[in-house]
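Bench notes, afternoon.
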Amino acid sequence: MHKLIIVDDETLICTRLKNDIESSFAGLITSSSANSAKQALSLFEKEKPDTMIIDIMMPEMDGLKLIEIIRAKNTDVNIIILSGYDEFRYAQRALELGVCMYLLKPVNKEKLTETLQTLCQQKKAFIKK
């Protein structure tokens, strides 16, 4: 079972992504969501996810800072950035932090599904070695 945490300050986006993921990966991925970086860190510690989808722009702490904290604790978690900002400096910093993918909002279900399938397949291949 692949564990996923969705982090976005917009509840509607979390709900939509969670529904899209659960309908595409029924029984293969379990997902939780957080509406703040603080809540995300708590879930991260509790659930030990395989993958996190993190919004860049959130109040209190942005997604890049959250990723820095997570990377200090676990370098193996797959991180996908979800952003409404198509700015090079965000993408550049995301690459420095080892992010797997940078998706722009609004992300379509097909692109999200494709990205998660690739990450899950890579994880299975790694475990089999």
